[in-house]
Amino acid sequence: EVVAPPVAQPDAAPPDRSFVYPRQGQGAQQQASDEYECHRWAVTQSGFDPTGAATGQVTITTSSNQRGDYQRARTACLEGRGYTVR
Fold first, then answer.
1. What is the Cα 36 distance to its own chain's centre?
2. Residue 42: which of 4, 3, 81 has the closest Cα?
């Protein structure tokens, strides 16, 4: 039986998942604090809050540019505080 290939979903958002590794011996509490502060800063810089997806506040029309801007801002903030982000 031949089936049609899956339909691509261009609006599907890429995962907002990244891994953060301390480079300067930061403890778990310091890392958690830095990650939260960088998250809040990235939200203000990009206008995008990925936590809104969990509460239904993010719509399908959310720009992928905003998502990318958020990730870049968060990564820059964390790297500036001495972390490696992958």
1. 12
2. 81
Q: Is the dihedral of CA 18, 50, 78, 73 positive or negative?
A: positive
pTM for this model (two decimals): 0.75
- Judge whether 50 and 16 are in contact, CB under 8 Å: yes
Q: Which of 74, 82, 69 is nearest to 40 (CA)?
A: 74
Buried b (16+ CB within 10 A) or exposed e, 6-30: eeeeeeeeeeeeeebebeeebeeee
Query: What confidence tens digit (pLDDT) does each residue in 23-73 have?
Result: 999 999 999 999 999 999 999 999 999 988 667 766 656 678 999 999 999
Confidence of residue 8 (pLDDT cuts 50, 70, 90): low
Q: SS3 sequence, 24-57?
A: CCCCHHHHHHHHHHHHHHHHHHHCCCCCHHHHCC
